[in-house]
Amino acid sequence: MEGVEDLDVSPAVGMSGKLAHHSELCSVGVTSVTVTAALDTTDSNLTSSDTTRVPRFALRADPFPVRCSKSSPVWDYFKHFDLTFHPEKKCFRVCLICRAAGVDKAISVGQSASTGPLISHLRTHKDQYLEYIEKKNIIDAQSKCAVTSSQSSISTYFPVVTSTRDLFRARFAQWIVEQSLPLNIGESPSFKAMINVANKSIVVPDKKLIYDLLYSKKVDCSRKLRSYLSGKYYSITCDHWTSMAQDNYGALTLHVIDDFCLKTFVLSCVKHANGTSAAEVEAQLVTDLTAWGLEKRNFIAAVTDTASNMNAFGVSISSWRDAGLLRHHYCADHVLQLTAVKAYSADIEVPNDIGAEDEVDTSISSVKKARDLVSFVHSSCIATDKLTCAQRTLNAIASPLKLLQDVKTRWWSTYAMIQRILDLREALEHVFQEEFRYRESQNTPTQLEKLKLTDSDFESLHNVAYVLRPLQQVQKALEGEKYVNISLLPLVIHEIRVQLGICEGAVDSVRQRDLYQLLCIMVDDFKSRWGDSTTYSNAVVRSSRRRQVGIPKYAFWASLLDPRTKRKVTKILPASDVDVLWSDLTDGVKAVSQIYVPRDDEEGFLNAAQVEDIANDDCVPSDIDIRQGEHNFLADFEDEDSSLPEAVMTFDEIIAAEFVLYKSDRGQTMFNGDGVYNDPLDWWRIHYEKYPNIWKLASCVLAIPATSAPSERVFSAAANIVNKKRVRLKPDMVDLLIFLKANSEFVDW
Questions:
Q1: CATH architecture entry for 164-331+708-749
Q2: How far apart are CA 334 and CA 311, in angstroms?
Q3: Domain ranges of the chain
C-alpha cells in the first residue's frame, strides 16, 4: 500500500537505550486487542523468523502536545513513534492493530498529519473500521446537538454551501446504490464537467469518500433495524448463488408482520470460501441472528430449496433446543418445478409397435421441435426480423412479440415458451409460407423450414400447455413476497392433484401414448413429493435421503388463520384431520399468546401460567377492610343480577371462547370486485381486538413465505452488481451495496 512501510530494526539505537526505554512502554487496548511492548531484537533467543513477528519499535508513551485535542476516533487505532529513538519517523504513524499481530506498519501522514492515509489503512481491518464508523457517527450526532443548542451566529442567516455539498454527496451515494453503479463513477472527467455546469461549488466525491459514507449509512441502518426487529417473531429464506467471478454467495432474507403489513429485509449476502455447505450456511445464520439480536425462540420457519446442502441445513437447525417453534420448509415453487420439468426433459421413448395406420402422438417430439425453433430464431437476427415483419403484416397496431426460451431451472418457463408459440401461431405459419415461397432452391428447404411446426404439433403443444397451466398459475401465485401466500399452499396443491387426475383420466392411453406417459410420470412424481392424498400431520414425514413429503404443518395453520381460506381448507381434509388441526392450532395459540394485564406501577404481559394463578387465587388482600360495606350508604341499595361481577375466566377458557367466535366468523372472500386478491391482513386490522390471542399466532405464521423467491431476488440484484466489468469487486462491497438497496426503508439518505 502506498505510504505504508514494514519497519525494520533501527541500527541507530543501542541496546542500552532500548533497555532504558523498555520500562516506559505500555500496552494500548484497541478493540479487545492488546499491543505488546517493544523487545530487543538483538536477543540471542530470538531467531530471524521470530523477529519478523514481534513489534520492534518504540512508541511515545506520553501525550502529544498538539494545538487542539484529537477529536477523530481514528487516533484510537494509531500512535506516534518515539522521536527520541526514531527521529526519521516524524511524519509516520504506527498501526496498533497490525502491531498487535506482530507487524509494525508505518503509515505516512505527511507534514500536515492528515488522517486520510490512516483511514485508508484502517479499511483493511474490517471489524475495527466498522467500530470507527460507529464512533464517528456518535461524535457527529453529538456535535449536531451542540450546534443546535448553542446560540445561532450571523452565519446561520446566510446560504450554507457545505450543507448543499453534503446533500449532493448523500444523493450521489443513493444514486450509486439504487442503480448498482461503480463507486468511482464520479471520478470521470466528463461527469465532473457535467456537475460543474450545474453548480461550480459542488465537488464530486471520490471512491474513498463514497465508501466511507456507505459504510456509515450501513452502521446507522443496522442500528435502526436491530431496534425495530427486537422481540419480533420472524421467518427467513435462504439460497446460494455463484457469481460471474465464480464466487459462492449465500443470502438470507427476513420476514415479519408489523402494523398489519408484511415486511421483508435482507440480513446478509456473504461469500462462502469453501463452497455453500450446510455448515457454512448455518454459521452465516447464527452470525446474523447474533448480530441482529434476534432470539431463536421467536424463529418460526426457514424456507430453502431442496438441494442436499439446504436439506442438511434444515435438518440441523430444526434440532436447535432453544428454537421450539422452528420448522424447515421447502420452497413450494421449487418442488413443483421438479414435477413440471418432466415436460422439459421429456425422456419418453415412443413405442415401436405403432402401425402405419395408427395415429402417432407427437406431444413430446413437438415440445423438442418447439425448443429447437425458439433456439434457432434467437440465434438468427434474420429469422427474428422475419417473425417481427410477419406480426406487423398481420396486425400493424399491436407491438411485436418475441419467442421465449425455456430454461430447466426457471420456474414455469416451459409453459411460457409453449404458450408464446401458440399465441404467435398465425405469424409463425406466415413465416413458414414466406420461406417456402422465396427459398433459393425449390427442392431444398431452408433451415427455418426444417423446423416448421405442423397442425399436429400445434395440437400437441396445446395439450401439453393445458397440463402445465395449473402448475404455472400456482407457481406464479406463490412467488410473491409482498402479500400473504403460505395460506394458499394446501388449496393449490389439492387443486393441482385434482387437475392432474382429470387430465390423466381424459387422455386416451392408446392414441395419445406420449401425453399419457408424460402425465403418468408427472402424477407419480407429484405424489412422491406431496403425498398420495391431502392430509394433515403434525410430524415431519420424510422419504429417501431424508426428503420431506407432504404439505408442512404451518401451511395448514396459516390456512385456518387466513380469513379467506379457513372455511375452504376444512373441506379438503378428512374430518379426523380437521379436529386434530384445530386442536394443534389451539396449542399453538397458547404457546405464543400473552394476556396484557395493566398494573398500577407498571405495564406488562403475563403468560398463561401467571394468568391461571391469578384467576385461581381466592385470597383477599389484607389491606382491604371487608366490613366497609356496613358503613357505606350504597349498601342500602339492592344489587341487580346484571351488575354482579362475572366469574374470572382461565386462560384456556379465554382461548376456547375466541375460537368459538372465530370458527363462526364468515371471514373474507378470496377476491374483491375487481378480481384482485383480498389482503387478509386488512381483515385482521379490523378484527384483531376481537381475537387478540389468535392474531398473535396469525402474525407469526402468515409471515412465512411459501417460496424462496425473496432470496432469489437478492441474487438478481447481485448479478447487476457483479457483472463482467466488476468481477474483482470484493465480497464485502457486494454485501454492503445489496444491504443498503434492499433495506432502503431504514436508510436515512
A1: 2-Layer Sandwich (3.30)
A2: 13
A3: 4-133, 164-331+708-749, 343-534, 568-619+644-701
